[in-house]
Amino acid sequence: MESILLDGKSLSKEIEIELKQRVKNIIKRTGNTPVLATILVGNDPSSEIYVKMKGNACDRVGIKSLKVHLPENITTDGLLNEIDKLNNDDTVCGILLQHPVPNQINERLCFDKIVIEKDVDGVTCLGFGKMTMGENAFGSATPTGIMKLIEHYNLPIEGKHAVVIGRSPILGKPIAMMLLNRNATVTICHSRTKNLSDIVKQADIVVGAVGIPEFIKADWIKDNAIVIDAGYHKGGVGDIEINKVKDRTLAYTPVPGGVGPITIATLISQTVESAEERLK
Q: Among residues 3, 4, 67, 11, which one has the least CA distance to residue 38?
């Protein structure tokens, strides 16, 4: 059986078509265009590219992108004040603090300053806790996007052994909880895990979220696994040796064109959802 390519690019285009109509309905009902505020601290070139891509996605579906560009040397208190202004701005439906921030800033404190109704990137501790407990909250954008891809292609989750390599608060931990909530048996691996390759070999679902180019080797992955690569590095490679394993998977995400586009579509989708919640 031929491997299924999990095409994040085409799914994101489908989602954007639907969002465009939903945004028109919001504007028709309220007279106001939904706003996503994006905070960028400093001049990290990669972050600037990501912010631009998110702004372009806003334009495509008809919502406003409010870019807040702050100096590299801003303090934690200064950033908290900027977030508070956006929390109190009724025109803003979603707030995104672009990661990473400079070292002098307490990133967790700043993430948690975002009110949960506007936490469309799913970065707050409160949002994570609610999502984990099955309560209503916006999930972290990348893991939520991954789940959208899996569901779109009707791939089996229940009863499967999922191995997540990486434990970051906005990717590894939330995707593990989302898979657990869908009745997968989940193992979380990280830099201190022993016999990592042996654990990965047991996985029906592999999620690469370690942030190291092609760290997860093709020969670690068993035949007919679902392989999700959430990494992206220079040269168009991810965290997994995808090209060496893709032909014997049940399904896999390409790099690029898999997880990246669906992450941005999810962020925009959750911003539109936030705007719709205000109408209830």
A: 67
